[in-house]
Amino acid sequence: MVDRHLWKENPFDEEYFEQYSQQVGDNRIEPIMEELKEMSDPEDMMLLIMDTLKDTEVVPDAGQYYTFLYTAKTPRLTYDQHPLVAVTDIERWGFKGINYHWGKFRNYTWEELGGVLYVVRPSEINDLRNVSYAYFLRTL
Question: What is the pTM assigned to this prediction?
């Protein structure tokens, strides 16, 4: 039987612990860090990251972190095909965010997304920032 006095002193419920776990613990990247560090091909790294993260969205939320496949179409543009982004604004044409591989704001259009956005939890962002999986390409 649950001690009601103890419950009042400790008001945390299952929903709180689930939210806490997603924000602070439950880092899905940490168990694969050694494997990622041993890899040299950014495409293989991205495949492992996508397979590990699994949680996806079609439209991002401002204030959240994502990684995804991207193919720019602007002529003579160097771009990151595997961006790691903190989304700041959602627009009709796409979204804006800070690309951690570039260290600056970038724009991403809906048509140039290569599918879904992989959700990166706050507990995982620093690990992914320490993995060199950026894949810089140049359009013709």
Answer: 0.82
